[in-house]
Structures are given as C-alpha cells and as structure tokens.
Amino acid sequence: MGNVFKSIALMPHVHKEEALRAARKLARWMEAAGRSVRVLREDAAYLGEGFTGLELEELARGLDLVISLGGDGTMLRAAAVAFVADVPVVGVNLGKKGFLTAVDAGGMFACMEDILAGRFLLQERMMLECSLPGDEARHYALNEVVVGKRELQRMIRLEVDIDGEYYHYYAGDGIIFSTPTGSTAYSLSSGGPIVDPQLDCIIMTPVCSHSLMDRSVVVSPESVIEVRVESGRVMPSVSLDGREEVALPQGGKIAVRRAARRLKMIKKADYSFFALLREKFDFPS
User: Fold this and answer.
1) CATH placement of domain 128-258
2) Does residue 2 register a pLDDT over 70?
3) Strand order in the sheet with 225-229
4) Is 72 an active-site residue?
C-alpha cells in the first residue's frame, strides 16, 4: 500500500514550535520523495511561507494519508480528518504519553521511509457514532463520547437504556462511552478497564458517581445505548474526543453506537499493544 501514498496531509500541533518545525522538515522531505503535501487552511498560517491551506472538503478529496505531528490530542484531530477521507492516519509523537502515535520524533524519517515502502502494520480501529437530540448530523469519536455537565458543583442525572431496555440511573459528573482504543484515556483515569484495541465493544464508565456500587460495564458492539438527561439545574453537554463539545437541551436523549466504518491506523511493523502498555505505564520488570 505504501507506494500509493501520493497525496499526504500534515497536521501539526500548531501551538507547539517543535511540531511546526518537524512539519516543515517533513514537508520538504516528502516533496523531495515525489509526494504532494497538503495542510488545512487553519494550519497554513502557523506553518508560514510556502504552505497554502485547503478547506477540509478539498483537502480530503483524493487524499491518501494523514500524518499527525504532536501528542494524542493532535492525533485525535488528525484521525477525524482521516476518517472523513477514509484514509490511514499515522502519528509522530511530540507529546507525553503518545498512546495513539506510531513513532517518536527521532525516528520520523526512518519510519516514513518504511511507510512509503509499504513496511508497516495497518490496523482498523472501531469508532463511535453519536446522535444528538434535534440534530440530524452524526458525530464520531475514536476515543470516547462523554455525556456530562458544565457546572462543576452540581450533579447531572442520567437514565441509560441498552437496546431499548432500561438499564440504570446515574447521578454524578457524567458517563464516558469509550472504544477499546480509548480505554487507556479518560475511561482509565475514571476507573475503567484496559481493553485490547483490536476488540470491538463499548465501555461505559461513570464519572464520580454518587453510588459506591457503580462500576464500568462492557457492552456488546451491536448494542445501541440511549441516554436521557433528566431536567434539572445543570447545563448538560456532550464531548467527543475532547475536540468537540455540544450543549444539550435539558431532557434531551443521546444515542451512542458503533460506527459503520472503521478508522485505518498505521503502526510500525513490530507494534505490540502490550509492549506499549509496559513502556507507557512503566511496568516493573
């Protein structure tokens, strides 16, 4: 597949100079290798002279690959573009944890040589689809959909149905609906399980629940989960991968399910999720 990567989008962390420098160097390297480089219009001003940005629809047309340069937040932003274009995404880690990225900055050019030569592992990762009340559009997330609140000091009350059957009533700060890919992110910090990202399931993790008995629940990927927001004094909201936050009407209902399409993600040929866990969490030997 590597030899078909002709048109490549670069998506750097625009507020990190290290990422911008890496993007400029990589753009020159890719062009010398005979590849066409694209950037979003909103990023072009940060990259400076020589970069002409495109709107998302134009950038996605005929695109072959998206490269993220930054941390996991930048990777989530790049993954959203790759999902729209239905092309693979690969990440260069210039952040801290770097769970989603494939390579550190020092190995960037060697990794890109392997990718252009077709020496890599291509994985497909489950995405979540979220529909919101009064909104015909569909929203997508690689890591998680979070139904929460904007007022810090108040609880939000949520009723959850699974496949049309009432399941549970939650009172607390909200609920995280995570993919296996996102199981090592917000869900984990809220007490959720680590799940192999090659699996398909929906992980439902309460945030600061008012009940000591509330724990994460792992739900079939075939299920549709509906959340009803009880009317009250808090302003409910939905956050998708920490990128997009949407205010909800009180009493509204949100539906979360597995997306019909999957995200294509490039990893190094020797990638191991469990080796990554040992490295990032500094497991004792």
Assistant:
1) 2.60.200.30
2) no
3) 139-141, 128-131, 253-258, 225-229, 156-162, 165-172
4) yes
